[in-house]
Amino acid sequence: MEERYLKVGQDGLLSWYKTEKADDASLGTLQLGGRNVHISPEDDCEMRVVTSDRTYVFKFSDKDTATQWYNISHWHSLRKPLNNPAKSVRRHTLPSK
């Protein structure tokens, strides 16, 4: 198993990288919204994210780290994916009174 660095964006995208350098290209990305996220019943250091195509397995060094990543990922899994996460809020205008 190869070591990877994970990042979850505000848009609910879980990405993994070969190094922790900010300018590295991601090796993979997964939308967490609407996904089944759980800790493996066989290994409490392992988190699984189930999609319609496959199950992604993330193995952590200890139970606490796995639980932290599960909590973050599970919270995002309960949210609807954003259609356009880059949309600027400043473009919206308020109705006049």
Q: How are the SSEs ordered, and which strands pair?
A:
Elements: E1 5-8, E2 13-17, E3 28-31, E4 36-39, E5 46-50, E6 55-59, H1 63-77
**How many domain units?**
1
Radius of gyration: 16 Å
Query: Could you name the CATH class?
Result: Mainly Beta
The total beta strand count reads 6
Word description of this protein:
The structure is a single chain. 13% of the residues are buried. The chain contains one helix and six strands, in the order ββββββα. A three-stranded antiparallel β-sheet has the order 1-2-3, with helices on one face. The chain is an alpha+beta fold. The chain has a single domain (5-76), classed as PH-domain like (Roll).
Keywords for this entry:
single chain, 97 residues, alpha+beta, PH-domain like, three-stranded antiparallel beta sheet, globular
Task: Provide a brief overview of the structure.
By secondary structure, the chain is an alpha+beta fold.
